[in-house]
Fold these 4 entries.
Entry 1:
Amino acid sequence: MAGVEGGIPRMSDRKPLVILKTGRKIPSLASIHGDYEDWIAVGMGWPADAVRVLDAGGARALPHPGSVAGIAITGSGSMVTERADWMLRAADWLAEALNREVPVLGICFGHQLLAHALGGEVDYNPRGVEVGTVEVTMAEAAADDPLFSVLPTRLWAQLSHRQSVRALPTGATLLGTSEMEPHQGFAYGPRAWGVQFHPEFDERIIPHFVEYYREILGEQSRSVDALKAAVRPAPESRLLLRRFAEIVRDGSR
């Protein structure tokens, strides 16, 4: 019989945490170990054998939501407005998971896909690309939220996105904002959250995304060098991952 490692359940003991992989890291990050799903799992403190990674674009079928302990949705270079078949399948699956109150955390693209699945509006941010280390301010509702209450009122976070949640789903609660992004985080019901920033990114990763957007940033008369110089660690944002893991573990017992 399999045991428990470091207080964290193995897949064979309990329902798995599913990480829905919706994209891959950009080529310039080849020298940095891992990918979105690895960084998320590490940030949550989950060992590899306690996580089931599903490729949203390649999976023939997604598991029954009742068979998983929780779901985290990664970032992606894809755009929700593409409405690809795999996105529509994933959105339907997420909606079913929410009906069963499976804990769900959408990150960046995952945040947008979750909002779309719930009837929100996603499109390009009219203010342009938000990339780099950005100050995020929590909304008043965050103080009482089971997940976001672990975050300070203001914190630094790593961001890289062109599209945004332009309108929250009906019934969603706004949890955070930034200068360029009015919907940095939201909650829907008791166990579903979207977050536009990347709590799994560190200060080694985000400069690569600043460089990735060099041409677009130039068109917006924004300095790549200044954005790179402003990159800083954002350890407080990672608290979100640890707390979500606690919520998943508590619900799977």
Entry 2:
Amino acid sequence: MERVNGIGGYFMRTRDPEAVSAWYQDMLGIDMTDGVWRQAAGPTVVAAFEDETDYFGSRPDGVDRQQTMLNFRVDDLDAMLEQLQAAEADVIDEIQEMEGIGRFGWVTDPEGNRIELWEPAPGAEFPESSESL
């Protein structure tokens, strides 16, 4: 059976693609100028949430709710959040920890999309795929 072997891209509609691309570059270090970003090796979690979840954050009245949330792995969550706060990004003032999984924080991009930042727990082990990539 054929199957996917990784995330090939993440595409988003924006009111101002140039400004949003600059924000991702300046705040998260993702250079979007040539359309390709090479990520570090590591686990990628794919999960479905209940339709009424508030985990993705909230949006102002009249704005469609966020249907997906992008999660980026980081080496040092505290340092990343401090860097974002110093740059006056809209950082959510909350950190969650899941034992054996890691720590999570959030920032909102200029279009109002909540982005999750994940520092995997030291020594965290994730199941290998049943088929090799």
Entry 3:
Amino acid sequence: MNIKRNIIFSLESRKKEGRPIVVNVPIRMRVVYAGQRIEFTTGYRIDVSKWDADKQRVKNGCSNKLKQSASEINAELLKHYSHIQEIFKE
């Protein structure tokens, strides 16, 4: 059975003293299905300037404060995405 769902990666919106935090922001994964929404943290953080919101991935050639490369983080995001897809296919 294939359940209709939507999986979105985005940066968490946080503010400190009324100003948006743009450095070292957590990457979240949101799963929407059957009118319900659940959000997970991915365990990765990135600066807002290094995030491609359209592609929902870290920009190529960038790294985070822990020196994790864009390719490493994006590969892990793809693993999260694939895992959720498998759950819905079962």
Entry 4:
Amino acid sequence: MQEIVRAMNYVIEQGWAFYWGTSEWTGAEIIEACEVADRLGLIRPICDQTRYNILDRSRVDYDFVNLYKKYKYGITAFSALSSGVLTGKYNDGIPDGSRMSIPWFKSILSNGLEEKSAKAIQLAEIAKEIGCTLPQLAIAWIEQLDENLRALEFEDKITPEIRAKIDTIADVKPELTKVQDNVHQMRGKWQ
């Protein structure tokens, strides 16, 4: 970790960047990086690029909770549609030409696909109930409304009752995902 922190600070010292952040790191890894930076008097990472959506939110809602206050850590969320699962396109399997039809993507993204697709079907019913599409519901849920302005029409329809239904279907529990495990394996090859 010290090597990573020093390398990122070198990039900043050279004027190639003003700050540095992480992508898909665990809370423990980020804390370690911040502690190393503090110990060495270097610049800490300031944010993590992490997936955040109805089905994938353990990191943001649970793992990072202490980071926000203690380190003033930020996030840059991505994968609002859970790699396409929340569009419904994987409800009947993996279509040819889709991202998950590519072996490399399939190996890291398809873990739990059937379960997530089953949840997407249930979430589509809630979307229908409030008069929008599943992708619009997914975007409105995370309040990333500039991504899809039409979602503004449905934001107020996501009442506490609708949110409770969504949470029941999503059944989110803090856990490492297969993607995180694969990222850790890839990092191990580079270190």
